Amino acid sequence: MELCTILQPECTTCATPGSKKKVLELISDIAAVQYPTLSSQEIFESLLAREKMGSTGIGNGIAIPHGRLTNIDHPLGILIKCETPISFDSIDKQPVDILFALLVPAEQCEQHLATLSSMAEKLNDKAIVKQLRKSTSESELYDLITQ
Asked: Which residues belong to any copy of the PTS EIIA type-2 domain (predicted)?
């Protein structure tokens, strides 16, 4: 699946959320605009449930929070660059400054895993991550990740 089909420019932001809880709330608020039938609280609870199984902080300042939701018919990506890195209980114990959140319909498990794998691979590219960290606007961030 092409990344630009699940990540829209309005779901890409530079922010200073301050904590893991606040960034998950920010992701939920952004997603709730895209999924009007869901509340940001429902989305937050889905993300939090996944985090309770183990942190989605994959190391090197990157996290890929994700959740499965009923009552949605299409996946949604959200990209956030934190102006100030936040503690995220990452596997390498380092703070996180780049997050790619993925929300998918509950019945699309295989597609979910393939998209997560693809994003993890992209964020494993040191050159891409360096450019993302240097970006100064949401549009630049979006263009870098979708190219």
From this structure: 1-147
